[in-house]
């Protein structure tokens, strides 16, 4: 099952028989079997018929709304899980400094481990000494994070490791038409940051959906501070996936010349956005990456990255319920 992306402005999604059809005027833009769709993501101004919304909710399919440039707005989702006992354990852990710290350490070490792996690969394949040095800094941050006495300390070590990683990220970009001087988030002011920001938004949305499926409260996390309206738990869970999903896609698109500077536009304030063509290509690459299979180190079997979003969330549920002694972040090799 995959995500259906609707990017055409003024388009309409409707269910006809057992198929989902996107039209604009008399033109049929997309026609796919309902059974193959796990989520709908709409960019900008497109509509969904009322009867289709009802059918999607019956089938447990989310409808996520983003701005045309990819900023998250909100979602229509099925009835909340009835697993209240799981959420009770989630709330208990959130008010336990010990439990919160243990989970925060796991999320940080999982992310940093995958950052380090990505850099070590680059150091071996392209003989980049700068990446090797940054990987050593990340390794030190991992060791420190595992010994953190507070959640703030864990966040600090995560920041140190991320700074080392993004300090050499430009070395991973072989395409000389693109430059990267550091992470710029809101708003992104260059093509590389525009890709990273869009990718992280898509990833957060997918983890939000996984959290809903498992029955956890998306607004109560452990590493990310609680703020009104902030989906802290999906943000916690997505940390381990940032380098192996989004960063890998960005590097693939740039280093394989799939995207060129013509696929980006700049608006007032140097705000950089993908063109419609560039965005559609990036979405295809994102979906392909999600459907790629890998050998899960804990399950000892081949699964898709998309399935691993839910699996890692279920591991968290088992940890909260006491079925696992500690949360096993997904660490690639």
Number of strands: 12
Give the averaged pLDDT, no decimals. 90
Number of domains: 2
Shape: globular
Number of discrete helical segments: 10
- SSE series: EEEEEEHEEHHHHHHHEEHEEH
As a percent range, the share of strand residues is: 15-25%
Query: Considering DSSP H and I runs of 4 or more, what fraction of the residues is helical?
Result: 40-55%
Strand order of the largest sheet: 1-5-7-8
At the fourth level of CATH, the homologous superfamily of the largest domain is CRISPR-associated endonuclease Cas1, C-terminal domain
Question: Kindly, what is the distance between the CA atoms of the first and last residues, rounded to a whole number of angstroms?
Answer: 26 Å
Mind describing the biggest β-sheet? 4 strands, mixed
What would you say this structure looks like, in words?
The structure is a single chain. The chain is α/β, with parallel strands linked by helices and 333 residues long. The chain folds into two domains: 75 residues, CRISPR-associated endonuclease Cas1, N-terminal domain (Ribosomal Protein L15, Chain: K, domain 2); 237 residues, Up-down Bundle (Four Helix Bundle (Hemerythrin (Met), subunit A)). The protein has ten helices and twelve strands. A four-stranded mixed beta sheet has the order 1-5-7-8, sandwiched between helices. It has a four-stranded mixed beta sheet with strand order 4-3-2-6. A hairpin with a 5-residue loop joins strand 7 and strand 8. Helix 8 crosses helix 9. The longest helix is centred in the middle third of the chain and has 30 residues. The two termini are 26 Å apart. Belongs to the CRISPR-associated endonuclease Cas1 family. Its EC number is 3.1.-.-.
């Amino acid at each position: 099952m995959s995500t259906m992306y609707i990017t055409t402005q003024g388009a309409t999604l409707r269910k006809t028989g057992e198929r989902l059809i996107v039209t604009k005027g008399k033109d049929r833009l997309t026609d796919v079997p309902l059974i193959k769709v796990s989520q709908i993501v709409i960019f900008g101004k497109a509509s969904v018929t009322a009867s289709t919304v009802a059918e999607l909710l019956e089938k447990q399919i989310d409808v996520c709304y983003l701005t045309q440039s990819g900023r998250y707005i909100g979602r229509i989702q099925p009835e909340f899980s009835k697993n209240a006992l799981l959420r009770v354990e989630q709330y208990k852990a959130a008010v336990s400094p010990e439990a919160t710290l243990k989970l925060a350490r796991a999320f940080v070490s999982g992310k940093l481990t995958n950052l380090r792996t990505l850099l070590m690969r680059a150091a071996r394949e392209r003989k980049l000494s700068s990446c090797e040095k940054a990987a050593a800094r990340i390794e030190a941050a991992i060791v420190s994070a595992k010994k953190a006495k507070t959640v703030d300390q864990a966040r600090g070590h995560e920041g140190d490791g991320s700074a080392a990683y993004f300090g050499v990220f430009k070395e991973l970009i072989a395409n000389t038409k693109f430059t990267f001087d550091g992470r710029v988030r809101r708003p992104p002011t260059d093509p590389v940051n525009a890709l990273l920001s869009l990718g992280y938004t898509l990833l957060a949305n997918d983890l939000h959906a996984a959290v809903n499926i498992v029955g956890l409260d998306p607004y109560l996390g452990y590493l990310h501070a609680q703020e009104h309206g902030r989906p802290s738990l999906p943000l916690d869970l997505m940390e381990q996936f940032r380098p192996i999903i989004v960063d890998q896609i960005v590097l693939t698109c740039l280093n394989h010349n799939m995207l060129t500077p013509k696929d980006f536009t700049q608006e007032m304030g140097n705000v950089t956005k993908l063109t419609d063509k560039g965005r559609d290509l990036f979405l295809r690459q994102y979906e392909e990456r999600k459907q790629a299979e890998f050998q899960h180190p804990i399950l000892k079997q081949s699964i898709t990255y998309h399935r691993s979003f839910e699996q890692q969330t279920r591991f968290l549920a088992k940890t909260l319920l006491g079925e696992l002694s500690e949360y096993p972040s997904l660490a690639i090799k």
